[in-house]
Specification:
- By secondary structure, the protein is an alpha/beta fold.
- The protein contains four helices and twelve strands.
- Helices cover 19% and strands 19% of the residues.
- The strands form four sheets. The protein has a six-stranded mixed beta sheet. Strands 1-2 form a two-stranded antiparallel ribbon. Strands 4-8 form a two-stranded antiparallel ribbon.
- α2 runs parallel beside α4.
- The chain starts with 8 loop residues before the first strand and ends in a 12-residue tail after the last helix.
- The chain has a single domain, classed as Peptidoglycan recognition protein-like (Lysozyme-like, 3-Layer(aba) Sandwich), CATH 3.40.80.
- GO terms for molecular function: N-acetylmuramoyl-L-alanine amidase activity.
- It is an enzyme of class 3 (hydrolase).
- Belongs to the N-acetylmuramoyl-L-alanine amidase 2 family.
- InterPro entries: Amidase/PGRP_sf, Amidase_domain, NAMLAA_amidase_2.
């Protein structure tokens, strides 16, 4: 499996993504390596795709009065490093060298506060619904680029680091579509998500 060249990165920004900088980030703790890629799913409003609302949420420009659902998230300040649209378009909101606000209370392999040492990747979709082939293609490319520049050791879902609190990316995400990449990179993954793991 080919590796993406490190030259695709500049100060934590990936050249393969559309940039839409978010103000919602902080510094990572000094000396903490980035070892986890963390998958999520998102759609705004839930089940609606292709609109500007994710960009606006992550840049604090969402009109809370535009849709009834937005009233329940009014004032929320969140971000992720990346979002992969249904068409496979990758948008980056936060430098991977910085701490995005995507995981909340979370634990992976006995370590808390996954935001400190993870890269958040949102797939445009709804928990329980399937994702598009173009999203898996884009995810593979992004994960290879991350592997070339960051010491990633694991790939997990939000549901695995915040069980009972979060359900994404959910049963519609086909882990086997990224299984060969995970194994080729020598990464760890949540138990039971890959065939014959």
């Amino acid at each position: 499996m080919p590796e993406a060249p490190a030259s695709q990165w500049r100060a934590g920004w990936w050249s393969g993504a559309r940039a839409c900088p978010s103000p919602n980030f902080g510094q990572r703790p000094a000396g903490v390596p980035i070892t986890l890629a963390l998958l999520h799913s998102i759609s705004l409003p839930p089940g609606e795709y292709g609109g500007p609302h994710i960009d606006r949420l992550f840049t604090n420009t969402l009109d809370w009065d535009e849709h009834p659902y937005f009233q329940g998230i009014r004032g929320l300040e969140v971000s992720s490093h990346f979002v992969i649209s249904r068409l496979g378009i990758v948008t980056q909101y936060v430098s991977c060298d910085d701490r995005a606000w995507h995981a909340g209370r979370s634990t992976w392999e006995g370590r808390d506060n996954c935001n400190d040492w993870s890269i958040g990747i949102e797939l445009e979709g709804l928990e329980g619904e399937v994702f598009e082939p173009a999203q898996y293609v884009a995810l593979d490319e992004l994960l290879l680029a991350l592997a070339a520049s960051y010491p990633i050791e694991s790939l997990a879902g939000h549901e695995h680091v915040a069980p009972g609190r979060k359900l994404d990316p959910g049963p519609g995400f086909n882990w086997n579509k990224v299984g060969a990449l995970i194994k080729a990179q020598g990464w760890r993954w949540p138990a039971g998500v890959l065939d014959a793991d």
